[in-house]
Amino acid sequence: MAHRGAYDVALVFSEDQDxxxxxxxxxxxSQEQNRWIKMACAFPxxxxxxxxxxxxxxxxKIDKTLYDFCLDTRDYRPKLK
Length: 81
Known about the structure:
globular, alpha/beta
């Protein structure tokens, strides 16, 4: 979607560092298209759960209840016949 210019801001609800590669790709697309794209990572944070966000993104610390509410629990994998 970034290649097609479909958004300027992406908010990722995850702590998965594998997505840092996506963040780097988004930065490259932003430079190639000479436009501003912001990528932020929202993740649960509390005194007992000291998480960190995805590298190369802005970090947004939120409480676990809000984080759980925002998660998409749908399974997007193709159904096997």
